[in-house]
Amino acid sequence: MPIPYGWFGVGYGAELKAGDVRPVHYFGCDLVLFRNESGEAGLLDAYCPHLGAHMGHGGQVEGDSLRCPFHHWAFRPDGFCSKIPYAKAFPPRAKREPLAKSYPVVEKSGVIWAWYHPDDVAPMFDVIDYPEFTDPAFAEPIKREWRFASNPQEIAENGVDVAHFAYVHAMDAVPEGETDYEGVRRRSVARGHRTIDLPTGERKQLPYSVETVQNGAGQKFTRLSGLVELSLLVIATPVEADDVELRFCFTHPRVEPGSPQEKAIEAAIESTCGQKGVEGDIPIWHNKIHRARPYLCDGDGPILRFRRYFEQFYADGPDGSRLVEAAE
Ligand code: FES
Ligand SMILES: [Fe+2]
Q1: Measured on CA atoms in the order 163, 165, 170, 173, is the torsion positive or negative?
Q2: Are the C-beta atoms of residues 1 and 319 closer than 8 Å to each other?
Q3: How far is the CA of 316 from the CAs of 67, 151, 195, 319, in angstroms?
Q4: How many domains would you assign to the chain?
Q5: Atom of ligand 1 nearest to the CA of 84
Q6: Residues 109 and 135 placed together within one structural domain of the fold
Q7: Radius of gyration of the chain (CA)
């Protein structure tokens, strides 16, 4: 499948200090990520427009720019060349337009988001900020990361694949709840009750809710409420068309260290990440193919509706083939 367009997480803001320069590889491209001395993060094509040095290897931040290690040309986060130390006349084209290819970058929820579009179309929507990830009343983000052969669509589709919950995760299906599709956003809220056995031997019915927001191909947010309050950012970033980096970033209102609430939060994180969660899915995603025309039955979730939504993120359509209901 092609690489969809959207905002994709390329790192955490707190892990990129002013002056840091890092070679990275996303969207099938060698790139350089840096933070200048004014605190602005930049993501540029790694190869210098001058004679092609990789600026992520030996490049250094100088003021508001990244300086290439080869002849010390310097580039700002917007791709404009700010300095050629030995040119007698600064080239007119370099004054007019950016020489280096740059990716739009924003920082929200503690994540550095880069906009990718295969035709370099400017951002068509915004990243959603979830302030709890940078709120001191909330816990320091708890981060997990995986990399495997897959793509953002397969990962996102998992949430509407209601039948797999019983077989992969040995759990009851998560009801889809009320879902609403609006342009690039899909929101769903599922509410229910869970029976909890308390250590006192008592049984209790606790209401819970799971709220999710998918915002374009690269940003998903989940909020669990009930026994625990937990916010999760799911960040799926294409490395290549069939190679993905998946980050989970959790936070929750601060709780007493060692308290039963803290144990419950740890257990919820473990079940979201472990075999009952994403680590149950990863080996399947890693080895599967994408069936553009799946053979579905009546117990399957709203997979085709979800695909019609996700299809909009492919500049040239998902694979050239129309989606059809194959269960006949
Ligand atoms: S190759 Fe970068 S300055 Fe020459
Ligand atoms: Fe799953």
Answers
A1: negative
A2: yes
A3: 36, 16, 47, 8
A4: 2
A5: 3
A6: no
A7: 22
Tell which one of 51, 62, 82 to mutate to probe ligand 1, the residue whose CB is within 8 A of the most ligand atoms: 51
Question: Which of 221, 245, 218, 306 lies closest to 5 in space, CA to CA?
Answer: 218
Q: Which residues pair with 188 in a beta bridge?
A: 179, 212
pLDDT higher than 60, residue 324: no
Determine the distance separating the centroid of ligand 2 and the alpha carbon of 282, expressed in angstroms.
8
d(CA 261, CA 226) in angstroms, rounded, equals 11
d(CA 166, CA 275): 12
Tell me which residue of 267, 263, 236 sits closest to 249, measured CA to CA. Answer: 236
H or E segment to which residue 12 belongs: strand 6-12
User: Is pLDDT at 72 greater than 90 in this prediction?
Assistant: yes
Same domain, 164 and 246: yes
- Block residue for tokens 């790694």: 46
Residue 297 belongs to a domain: yes
Residues with a CB atom less than 6 Å from ligand 1: 48, 50-53, 68, 70-71, 73
DSSP for 167-209, please give it: HHS-SPPPP--EEEEETTEEEEEEEEEEEEE-TTS-EEEEEEE
Q: Which pLDDT score is estimated for 327?
A: 41
What confidence score (pLDDT) does residue 190 get?
87
Report the pLDDT value the prediction gives residue 155, as an integer from 0 to 100.
97
182-223 pLDDT, tens per residue?
999 999 998 877 777 777 788 877 788 889 999 999 999 999
Do 112 and 17 lie in one domain? The reply is yes
Give one DSSP letter per residue of 20-45, joined into a string.
Answer: -EEEEEETTEEEEEEE-TTS-EEEEE
90 and 173 together in one domain: no
Task: Please state the atom number of ligand 1 nearest to the C-alpha of residue 68.
Answer: 2
CA distance 193 to 190: 10
Which DSSP letter does residue 47 get? B
